[in-house]
Design brief:
The structure is a homodimer. Chain A is mostly beta strands and about 375 residues long. The first copy, chain A, has two domains: about 240 residues, Oxidoreductase, molybdopterin-binding domain (Sulfite Oxidase, Chain A, domain 2), CATH 3.90.420; about 120 residues, Immunoglobulin-like, CATH 2.60.40. Chain A contains five helices and 22 strands. At the A-B interface, helix 1, strand 5, strand 14 and strand 22 of A face helix 1, strand 5, strand 14 and strand 22 of B.
């Protein structure tokens, strides 16, 4: 009759038919937040508008020195302070990051977790030390398989008490394209607490779960990593019993800057008759975005949008724009991204039990009001 | 058979018994966000963790010059650029801001609007020009009644298309205690877009609706202001037909830094047996906080917490702390603030149709697990 973690920590589940958002999902939605979509106008997301999702609490890391240990199957294990990290040559990369669960709350049935609609995205310039530089210094053993990253965030999930941990295959950790960073700055300033102060991993092109925040340990191991966030969470499964496929890179997606103005409560968009310029952003972690199509009639007809130059930022979203003339009535606007490997967005929902890597085309209902 | 705003913009309503959070409330929760409560540890809320609530879209104010007009019943109407504002002597004030709707989603029945639990709060240092300096320069007419503040945020609400506007009585606008600011900096940096870039009003001690963001107009009028946000929204009413009382200053509230660690999904807190230091913050817009009591047994017994010095920051929250020894089992922790005018927090919910100015004592359920 003792008291154990399973009293407050249950298994994953899918919402029942017609089940609305409950108190637990609301508590997650109140603390985590998406990008207000009008902020897609900014090339680089201003501070505080980038999406944030934390599994447990944001660690309080003020005032005491931070240590990053590099160990396991390496020849020269090390413990580095943040000042030592900044003594390495710095690299800055512009990266669009997206939560693997983006779109989850629009799925039927709805996996019960952080209830994102489509807004779990943001773009920042991250500055830090290439991971491969640190691993080369440490001397990775020939038998290395995975590199495990440990954050300082601690909690319980489905009954398992844990520090947040994720791994990368050693080839990805040592890779140059994308080049993984141990980052200490975001948009030229120290990381904000919620983005991993003082250190986080940045894995360009991968969903957010790979970018371990509050990074305190890098461990090279000679077997595949089987931590909770690697083998229990963040897998693509239709049934709970499956091993599933790992969630890795970001599927292509385009979003619109919402045109016109909103109704406060319904968030419906209102425009007036005439020219309504449309714009938005598109990205893919698999290959550069090669095209964006726009529909203004609920997906019946699609036309090519104009793409702005990528500007050398392979891992950042790309701006697109499209001229639309609104007529009185109701319209549904959509944009659909395709990348250079031919990956595109589905018109009917993909579904998996975790609600991961969903990239269903966005629908934006718009009311064009009469002139009067 | 035309198309009009009322197609997408309905009246205010209260949720039906048992009605969970719907898509519209979720869309608000996904874009607005509260303070993750562990961030109560910081005296000043770090960038991006301060609560944010916007009625319509965040205006895009980059690249073009901003103009603030001061007019109406003044002798010398003016239009000021941001550079002219920064040429006045600057004042910096540390201010705790809270949304008037904080606590709304915990009410029964629940007013349907932005569904805050208890986290719609934050503290920042705001720098700007005292409003009374600007009004003295303009020369307020002897017949002045209200001062109206107009933001650049535009939308529709309950069928009324509008720029966001709020007013203050002329005595409050000219007052020294609190001293109202036209602020251009937050924590020493330009305002972030979501906090009103480039200019906002700061009204220390008042709920957030008074702190008009994206400020572009100050208009002195000789009759009481009857704009939507003054007479339709932000009133304390039991029935829809009442005139109601205006929402003004912040009622006292104390919140806890959540002890221990969370379960990801339930957000339940877990601690281990033994000493668990409790801490939190308390504030009131009516008078300085004079005491905080803590209960660790669901409100049966209350004991005084220790208050940190106020440090001269009258309008900022005050830190408190309390020593607790946890024993295995379930506990409910609460803190209750009282101010120097004797205002305190109710133990049973206050209720009004808008869900405004609710300051019910917070309950924090905690599980203390067995050592094993």
């Amino acid at each position: 009759m003792g008291h154990h973690l399973d009293e407050v920590s249950g298994p994953a589940r899918v919402a029942a038919p017609g089940e609305d958002i409950g108190r637990q999902e609301l508590a997650l939605a109140a603390r985590n937040h998406g990008l207000p979509l009008e902020a897609l106008r900014h090339d680089i997301t201003p501070p505080g508008l980038h999406y944030v999702m934390t599994h447990y609490d944001i660690p309080y890391a003020e005032g005491s020195p931070w240590r990053l240990s590099i160990g396991g199957r390496v020849r020269r294990p090390r413990v580095l302070g943040t000042a030592e990290l900044t003594s390495f040559p710095a690299v800055t990369q512009r990266v669009t990051m997206e939560c693997a669960g983006n779109g989850r709350a629009l799925l039927t049935p709805r996996p019960v977790s952080q209830p994102w609609l489509v807004e779990a995205v943001g773009t920042a310039e991250w500055t830090g030390v290439p991971l491969r530089t640190l691993l080369a210094e440490a001397g990775v053993g020939a038998d290395a398989v995975d590199v495990v990253f440990t954050g300082a965030d601690h909690g319980v999930e489905r009954g398992v008490e844990q520090d947040y941990q994720r791994s990368l295959p050693v080839a990805a950790a040592l890779g140059e394209d994308p080049e993984v960073l141990v980052a200490y700055a975001m948009n030229g300033a120290p990381l904000p607490p919620q983005h991993g102060f003082p250190l986080r991993l940045v894995v360009p092109g991968w969903y957010g779960m790979a970018h371990v925040k509050w990074l305190r340990g890098i461990t090279v191991i000679d077997i595949p990593f089987e931590g909770f966030q690697q083998v229990a969470a963040y897998r693509l499964r239709q049934d709970a019993g499956e091993v599933g496929e790992p969630v890795t890179r970001i599927a292509p997606r385009a979003l619109l800057v919402p045109p016109g103005f909103p109704d406060f409560m319904s968030r419906s968009r209102v425009v007036r008759e005439g020219a309504v310029p449309l714009e938005g952003r598109a990205w893919s972690g698999w290959a550069p975005v090669s095209g964006v199509e726009v529909s203004t009639d609920g997906g019946r007809e699609w036309r090519e949008a104009a793409l702005d130059p990528a500007g050398g930022h392979r891992w950042a979203w790309r701006r697109w724009h499209f001229a639309w003339t609104a007529t009185p009535g109701r319209h549904t606007l959509s944009a659909r991204a395709t990348d250079a490997e031919g990956n595109t967005q589905p018109l009917r929902q993909p579904w998996n039990r975790g609600g991961f890597a969903n990239n269903l085309v966005q629908d934006v209902p718009v009311l064009c009001v009469d002139q009067d």
